[in-house]
Write a structure and sequence with these properties.
6-stranded mixed beta sheet; 8 helices; 4-stranded antiparallel beta sheet; Aminopeptidase; elongated; Immunoglobulin-like; 18 strands; 2 domains; alpha/beta
Length: 411
């Protein structure tokens, strides 16, 4: 009986021990080595501030702002805040409120209410200072005017020294005086990689021409257009996304008309990011789309480390549904215009130009130059005009729907 009781006690203790082991694997906060500091004298106005959080080990994180009231939000994967009192953080009195804790499995959140609108000027994670163990997360924020207060942004550009990313705030309906919707058009291939070829006609030249036709229609409709290339030049794949991000594009559309063995593919199709896509045709297309960088000596296969993957996956939880929504609007408008499409018009693929985590992105495969019917369409000015007009209509409807959904989420 004593033996059975001992076994029962051990069995009952296992969940507690497992929970303790799980918690010990998480990062913890060292309050003694953490602080919130403000610069300059207190004259009753918001001042530049720096949040320094010393943790026991490095963790992935993202930073963004919310309004109503203004708040700085930092999501961590993952910090065990259970043993740390937010009110005990040195400098806590500088802000109206500070709270932190676990908000969903695998993630913790810090929310700091601010005395006004701010902007993120620095976000860096480095080895802890002053002999402390672990890592130091340092966030510097500065006061800005309300018109410059960007909410729902992220820290990717600060972490990787890229241009400031496009705001992932929902797109408001266009109105008088507001900035027009900005679309990044990316004609595929170019330079030393002409893409698919039929006789003297190359995919690179065909897509550059279609991009110009689409640009004219979009501009007449009141949109702004940013081109990743305007001539037959080589632009690295990562650079194409950076151009869109630097221009604060609201939507990224890559244009292609590829080639596959006869009978394998025909009809227009729209691709969104899907790292798990594994059918043979998609794999072949991915190799064709990415070969320009491989020919230039740039192998992107190992550029995303574990931290980058986690951060980008987290950011895509907001942008990916918006990319899918645009694809559905595009299919609807293309159907309405009588444009023949692939039997599965919306598909997933791990194309490099779809990797951007902060801009809704799609790749439009206008057709396949190896298919006679598609080839005839691609060379037909009337077909190209109808296709461009349908895409422009889809962009307008998507923007209005996106803004309406965002308004509901804010409520």
């Amino acid at each position: 009986m004593r033996w059975l009781c001992a076994l029962l006690l051990v069995w009952l203790a296992l969940p507690v021990l497992a929970d303790d082991r799980a918690r010990s694997a998480l990062a913890t906060v060292d309050l003694a080595e953490s602080s919130l500091m403000a610069e300059g004298r207190d004259r009753g106005r918001p001042r530049p501030m720096e949040l320094r959080l010393t943790i026991s080990q490095p963790v992935p994180y993202r930073v963004y702002f919310l309004d109503g009231p203004p708040r700085l939000v930092v999501d961590f994967r993952e910090i065990d805040f259970s043993g740390a009192d937010a009110d005990a953080l040195p400098g806590r009195e500088l802000v109206p409120a500070l709270r932190w804790g676990r908000f969903r499995p695998g993630w913790s959140r810090l929310v700091m209410e601010l005395p006004g609108p701010y902007a993120l000027r620095l976000a860096v994670q480095s080895p802890a200072e002053g002999g402390a163990q672990g890592a130091l997360v340092k966030l510097r924020i500065e006061p800005v005017d309300q018109k410059d207060f960007a909410t729902r942004g992220n820290a990717l550009s600060a972490l990787w020294d890229l241009p400031s990313p496009a705001a992932v705030a929902p797109l408001p309906p266009r109105r008088a005086g507001a900035r027009p919707l900005r679309v990044a058009l990316d004609p595929g291939h170019g330079g030393h990689d002409p893409g698919a070829q039929v006789g003297a006609i190359s995919e690179a030249a065909l897509m550059l021409g279609f991009a110009r036709e689409l640009t004219e229609i979009l501009t007449r409709a009141g949109f702004e257009v940013v081109a990743t290339r305007k001539d037959d030049s080589f632009i690295p794949l990562e650079r194409r996304m950076t151009i869109a991000r630097a221009a604060q594009a609201d939507l990224f559309i890559s244009l292609h008309a590829d080639a596959l063995p006869a009978g394998e593919a025909a009809g227009l199709s729209i691709y969104v990011w899907n790292q798990q896509a594994d059918d043979r045709a998609t794999r072949e297309l991915a190799m064709r789309h990415d070969r320009a960088d491989l020919l230039a000596g740039l192998d992107l296969s190992g550029t995303d480390d574990q931290l980058a993957d986690v951060l980008m996956d987290l950011a895509r939880t907001e942008t990916h549904p918006r990319s899918e929504a645009f694809a559905k609007f595009a299919v609807s408008e293309l159907n309405r215009a009588g444009i023949a499409m692939h039997r599965r018009p919306v598909r997933g693929a791990a194309f490099s130009v779809l990797k951007s985590p902060d801009i809704p992105s799609v790749l439009v495969e206008l057709g396949f130059m190896t298919d006679p019917g598609d080839r005839a369409n691609l060379f037909d000015p009337d077909w190209r005009a109808r296709t461009a007009q349908a895409l422009a209509q889809a962009i307008g409807h998507w923007a209005q729907d996106d803004a309406a959904r965002a308004a509901l989420l804010r409520k």
